[in-house]
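Re: your question about Peptidase M14 domain-containing protein

S., sorry for the slow reply, the queue was backed up all week. Below is exactly what I fed in.
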Amino acid sequence: MLNPDGVYLGNYRCSLMGFDLNRHWANPSPWAHPTLHGVKQLIIEMYNNPKINLEFYIDIHAHSTMMNGFMYGNIFEDEERFQRQAVFPKLLCQNAEDFSYSSTSFNRDAVKAGTGRRFLGGLLNDTSYCYTLEVSFYSYILDGPTTAVPYTEEAYMKLGRNVARTFLDYYRLNSLVERPLAPTPKTRKEKLPLFKCTPQRGQGNSHAGGKPEKRSQALLKDQSLSTR
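Result:
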């Protein structure tokens, strides 16, 4: 939680001092953005530690207009790297019925340059992946625009558990978990497979299949409630 004072006062986007904290990652002030400054320094220390390999960076936000959970990712020039970045949200789409891959977007918009996802995407190396996980303030859609299901605390927690399950699946597929915690189908291969996700109806336009352009990167971080 990087915006405790703002959220305490009911601000879902800005801090007590009126700053949108997820626009100040490039040069956070220890006075005006102390939580950002502290986390950024911690990430840099971990990144420079040869004993630590930062593989994922995920900040978590609530979205005020769209439905379901979905992700924002960065763009790579290299097609193969871009496809590797798409693996995690595709796996999450298989695990979580309320996660929409059709609403997942990969971009490098100038207006998002100060976000953690964009800034750390340019800082960390090419073995790291950086995402923003957005989850609706309101509802998720399962079968159509008339079947919106209101989010509850239990539903948010379930999505969190599905994110954790997706990490396990990801590392199984990459042969980094030698002994899985649960039996896996014999047909599961070591190489990352093709994925099929049924897009939810009633979502915004998809940019998930857009042409790759640039880069992205990674760790795991929890941000305050904030729309992107």
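The helical segments are 4-8, 34-47, 79-85, 87-95, 116-123, 153-173. Strands lie at 56-63, 69-73, 105-106, 129-136, 139-141, 148-150.

Happy to talk it through on Thursday.
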